[in-house]
Amino acid sequence: MVGINEGAIVELISGPFKGEMARVKRVDVAKEEIVNRLTSRRVCADCKAVYNLSMLPDGDGSRCAKCGGKLITRPDDREETVRRRLEVYEEQTSPVLEFYRRSTGVTEIPGTGDIDGITAEIIRAMK
Questions:
Q1: Bridge partners, residue 26, by sequence
Q2: CATH 1.10.260.40 fits 4-126, yes or no
Q3: 53: closest CA among 35, 71, 32?
Q4: How far apart are CA 116 and CA 57, in angstroms?
Q5: Of 46, 64, 115, 120, which one has the fewest beta carbons inside 10 Å?
Q6: Confidence class of residue 7 from pLDDT cuts 50, 70 and 90?
Q7: What are phi and psi of 82, to 5 degrees?
Q8: Does pTM top 0.85 for this prediction?
């Protein structure tokens, strides 16, 4: 479990090597959007290709477009599991994010919209 003490230790260790404190970037996506994205994910049982139901033609989530294999839902993509993972994430990362907000700041990057736009924002924030 990562906590505030681990964040402080990372700062102490990484600072001398990089000449500056770490700058944190956080891709911000609403909880319900994350739940929707993950519970809509399907994986081919045969070739392991990954799909989202919203991206499949005609919303057909039964067969893989690459090999024809059956598309399945991973156990960790079930709604109750996704919601629990988000709770744990919030519990474990909130103290660390607060540490960075108070020290070096956190750059919030909007994580909704088209993939190219989000990628461009991430690249821009990294410069």
A1: 108
A2: no
A3: 71
A4: 21
A5: 115
A6: low
A7: -60, -45
A8: no
Q: Indicate the burial class of 55 (C-beta count within 10 angstroms; 0-12, 13-18, 19 or more).
A: exposed
DSSP 22-82: --EEEEE--HHHHHHHHHTEEEETTT--EEEGGGSGGG--SB-TTT-PBEE--GGGSHHHH
pLDDT band at 19; cut points 50, 70, 90: very low
Going from N- to C-terminal start, the domains of the chain cover: 4-126
| Residue 119, CA atoms < 13 Å, CB-side half-sphere | 3
Question: Which residues partner with 24 through β-bridges?
Answer: 106
Residues in the chain: 127
**Residue type (1 letter), 101:** R
